[in-house]
């Protein structure tokens, strides 16, 4: 006992009390972390449920849920560190000294956070929209604090950083209820244009999903020494766009076969 007192400058009882205090603080800190993270998870779930019941925009729901979770977890970490006896003033001073390096390292992350706020504020797209952003095309499934999740037509998940998305060009294919269907048939020189026009007009008349206004347009847009581009422009509901495009191509191909028009003369683009 005397050797311990000489070595550490404390009596055995003092060392025992210090160890008990440290152990207690560690135990309490562990409880804070476990219970705190659990409560943060439950709170984020509650926020999601409440926002869902209030019919809030899905993008805002995912953003606020993620933000709530991260904020509460950060508070738990700070509380746990404080319980361990680490002075927060010293902790803040250390963070402040490393602030420049951290800021530079996380400049992209902060940009993505700001981009997420801009997306939710100005709403260039929302969950469920089909968009093209950063050369990727897909349906928006989630808008989180730092990233936007797209699902492509072949069910791939594309994770886009919000910063570049907010600052770049975004094409929203489903924002408007109506869209034009544009098809170009490339025909070899010598093809009977009147015959092809009649085929396309018969399709337009038979297709109830095509609007009569704006009036459908069929016309030559390009003539070269090898081919002629015959463009077709019709309007329909956005949800029917691809269906009409596919149906038109199939109809024209079948009519080419029925009328003995060489199918090598036609190319839809």
Enumerate the strands of the largest sheet in spatial order, edge to edge or round the barrel.
Answer: 4-3-2-1-5
Distance between the termini: 91 Å
Number of helices: 9
Give, in order, the helices and strands.
HHHHHHEEEEHEEHEEHE
Described by the principal axes of the CA atoms, the overall outline is rod-shaped
Q: How many structural units, i.e. domains?
A: 3
Secondary-structure class: alpha+beta
State Rg: 32 Å
Helix content: 40-55%
User: How many beta-strand elements?
Assistant: 9
Quote the CATH topology of the largest domain: Helix Hairpins
Low-confidence stretches: 263-269
Biggest sheet descriptor: 5 strands, antiparallel
What is the level-2 CATH architecture name of the largest domain? Answer: Orthogonal Bundle
Just give the CATH class of the largest domain: Mainly Alpha
Mean of all residue-level pLDDT scores: 82
Proportion of β residues? 15-25%
Overall description:
By secondary structure, the chain is α+β, with helices and mostly antiparallel strands. It has three domains: 2-97, Helix Hairpins (Orthogonal Bundle); 124-172, SH3 type barrels (Roll), CATH 2.30.30; 178-268, Alpha-Beta Plaits (2-Layer Sandwich). It contains nine helices and nine strands. The protein has helices spanning 2-8, 12-53, 58-83, 88-97, 99-105, 107-122, 162-167, 193-206, 241-258; strands at 130-133, 136-143, 147-151, 157-161, 170-172, 178-188, 217-223, 227-237, 266-268. The strands form two sheets. It has a five-stranded antiparallel β-sheet. A four-stranded antiparallel β-sheet has the order 7-8-6-9.
């Amino acid at each position: 006992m005397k050797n311990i007192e000489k070595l550490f400058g404390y009596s055995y009882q003092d060392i025992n009390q210090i160890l008990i205090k440290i152990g207690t603080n560690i135990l309490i800190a562990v409880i804070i972390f476990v219970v705190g993270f659990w409560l943060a998870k439950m709170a984020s779930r509650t926020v999601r449920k409440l926002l869902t019941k209030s019919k809030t925009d899905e993008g805002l729901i995912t953003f606020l849920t993620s933000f709530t979770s991260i904020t509460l977890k950060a508070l738990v970490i700070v509380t746990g560190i404080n319980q361990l006896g680490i002075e927060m003033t010293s902790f803040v001073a250390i963070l402040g000294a490393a602030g420049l390096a951290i800021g530079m390292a996380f400049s992209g992350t902060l940009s993505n956070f700001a981009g997420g706020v801009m997306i939710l504020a100005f709403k260039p797209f929302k969950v469920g929209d089909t968009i093209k952003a950063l050369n990727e095309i897909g349906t928006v499934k989630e808008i989180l604090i730092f990233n936007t999740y797209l699902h492509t037509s072949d069910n791939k998940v594309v994770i886009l950083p919000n910063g570049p998305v907010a600052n770049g060009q975004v094409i929203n294919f489903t924002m408007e209820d109506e869209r034009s269907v544009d098809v170009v048939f490339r025909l070899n020189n010598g093809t009977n244009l009147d015959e092809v026009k009649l085929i396309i007009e018969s399709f337009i008349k038979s297709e109830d999903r095509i609007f009569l206004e704006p009036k459908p347009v069929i016309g030559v847009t390009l003539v070269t020494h090898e081919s002629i581009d015959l463009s077709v422009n019709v309007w329909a509901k956005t949800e029917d766009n691809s269906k009409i495009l596919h149906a038109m191509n199939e109809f024209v191909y079948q009519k080419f076969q029925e009328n003995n028009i060489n199918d090598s003369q036609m190319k839809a683009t």
